[in-house]
Automatic annotation (TrEMBL):
Protein name (record): Multicomponent Na+:H+ antiporter subunit D
Annotated source species: Nonomuraea solani
Similarity comment text for this entry: Belongs to the CPA3 antiporters (TC 2.A.63) subunit D family.
Keyword Repressor included in the entry's annotation: no
GO biological process, one term: ATP synthesis coupled electron transport
Residues that span the membrane, as ranges: 32-51, 77-98, 110-129, 136-154, 166-188, 209-232, 275-293, 300-321, 327-348, 360-378, 408-427, 466-493
Length: 515
């Protein structure tokens, strides 16, 4: 199905055209970005419908048949996350077009930011659709090349420092990925995911375990799973708001998606499942405890991002249809909610000049629209009924209780504690930034605080373009729609999990009679 290539090719072509145009024709630059991402979203929806009705759709690149050639595979899982990621990137692009966040360098957002953003979007799509481990490596490098530019955009000292940390982490994981590919190819003679699913069954257990652990280590770094998550809270908060939002919403989920694909297709029910459960437990608790201790909205959200990756890993570790369905539902929910919260935080920073809750106050009165836009996804993230965050957690709790093992039941209890602590963290931030009195009432207390850095304690304010909150509201509405459509969405997640656990539909679609 030739449409499968479009979510990858269209952003790359658009990035090339925009680089050729340069800083000229600013409105045309914006139009190209929005139209490209709009078409990608439409194509993703078509692919989702086709995969749901007719099974995995495959296209072979370069005229070489699988498993010799590289193929792109659109099954229920890949197309579902592709649709959500396309919708999110479209909203973030609309935000960045309206925002013009770097007002000192008017040409930079169009000439640099947008092409890098589109390259990253192409890499994300390629990762979701890849049917080959080497192409997955290429996809990671593609999205990372765009993310390097976005993270250091503007060239400030903090962004360069964060970019250096992020780059070192990415290079280390890429080198480890290449080592894993070499081991895998030496052991099996192939890197096709479908053929690996067949050939791993005949390998000695020690070799399978070595390959699985090496690949899991790679994807755990990219997904920011504890204890390999220390780089994230120091990297993401420094980037521009649109970049931070899409990083938080999408990039870690590419790592989670890779773990789901790895464990369900290549190593179903393996001995690593119990290890993944304890890793999920540590990720939940370490992340949420870090979030509780923060006084900056960006860092608080970065730690909650780490924490909630643990829920997804928990669902994968259960190795059941119910557990995988809960993990898939939670991935979809979390992409939209986390992106929304970072975009709203960008609005707060532009409006007040800070994201420190010790320097904020009275925003409920001053900016009620922003207050609502923060409150809704914050409650969704915390799992307040009947929102999608609650429904995703409920699916995972039910799957864990159905498993009945001690690790699973422990994870259920940890998940409930994490949810309560998440609610405490966001409620504390809400109370300080939005609910308590205006900043002018607390200047003296801030000056006496050890957290004060010598900056002018008077928070500046700036007006926002009317269209800016609208772009964020669209994303918040998308997150709320998952609550309204929870029945069909959870059913689709269950069908995707069933297809993953069956494995044969994927293998047959890619290989046919070749094994």
């Amino acid at each position: 199905m030739s449409l499968i290539c479009l979510p990858v090719l269209l952003p790359l072509l658009a990035a090339g055209v925009k680089l050729a145009i340069g800083a000229r024709l600013r409105r045309l630059q914006s139009l190209i970005s929005l139209v490209t991402l709009g078409i990608s979203l439409a194509v993703s929806v078509v692919l989702l419908v086709a995969a749901d009705e007719h099974g995995p759709q495959v296209t072979e690149l370069g005229g070489w048949a699988s498993p010799i050639g590289i193929c792109l595979v659109a099954d229920r899982l890949s197309t579902l996350v592709l649709v959500v990621s396309s919708a999110v990137t479209l909203c973030v692009m609309a935000y960045s077009v309206v925002n013009a966040y770097d007002e000192q360098e008017h040409d930079a957002p169009m000439a640099i930011f947008h092409p890098a953003f589109l390259v990253m979007v192409a890499g994300v799509a390629d990762a979701f659709l890849s049917g080959d481990l080497f192409n997955l490596f290429v996809a990671f490098e593609l999205l990372l090349s765009g993310s390097y530019v976005l993270l250091t955009f503007g060239g400030t000292e903090s962004r360069i420092r964060a970019g250096a940390t992020y780059t070192l982490m990415a290079l280390a994981s890429s080198m480890l990925f290449l080592i894993a590919l070499a081991i895998t190819y030496a052991a099996t003679g192939t890197l096709s995911l479908a053929q690996l699913a067949v050939r791993f069954a005949t390998l000695p257990e020690q070799v399978k375990l070595l390959v699985e652990l090496t690949l899991l280590l790679v994807f755990a770094i990219k997904a920011a799973i504890f204890p390999l998550s220390a780089w994230l809270p120091d990297s993401y908060p420094t980037a521009p708001a649109p970049a931070t939002a899409v990083f938080a919403g999408l990039l870690t989920k590419v790592g989670v998606y890779s773990i789901i694909r790895l464990e369900a297709l290549l190593f179903p029910g393996g001995p690593v499942s119990t290890l993944l459960m304890w890793v999920a437990l540590a990720t939940m608790l370490a992340g949420v405890l870090g979030a509780v201790a923060q006084t900056d909205l960006k860092r608080m959200l970065s730690f909650t991002l780490v924490s909630h990756i643990g829920y997804m890993v928990f669902g994968v570790a259960l190795s059941t249809v119910a557990g995988l369905a809960g993990a898939i539902f939670y991935v979809v929910h979390h992409i939209t909610v986390q992106t929304s919260l970072f975009l709203v935080t960008g609005l707060i920073e532009r409006r007040t000049g800070t994201t420190s809750v010790t320097r904020l106050g009275g925003l409920m009165t001053a900016t009620p629209v922003i207050a609502v836009l923060f409150f809704v996804p914050a409650m969704n993230l915390s799992g307040i009924p009947p929102m999608s965050g609650f429904l995703g957690k409920l699916m995972l709790v039910q799957a864990g209780l159905a498993d009945g093992g001690r690790p699973a039941v422990t994870l259920v209890a940890a998940g409930l504690v994490t949810s309560l602590l998440t609610l405490y963290a966001v409620a504390k931030a809400w109370g300080k930034a939005f609910w308590r009195g205006p900043r002018s009432d607390r200047v003296g207390r801030v000056l006496e605080s050890e957290e004060y850095t010598g900056e002018d304690p008077t928070v500046t304010t700036a007006t926002l373009p009317v269209a800016l909150p609208i772009a964020v509201a669209a994303l918040v509405a998308l997150g709320l729609s998952f609550t309204v459509l929870a029945g069909p969405l959870s059913a689709l997640a269950e069908r995707a999990a069933t297809e993953l656990m069956a494995r044969e539909p994927y293998i047959t679609a890619v290989l046919g009679g070749v094994r």
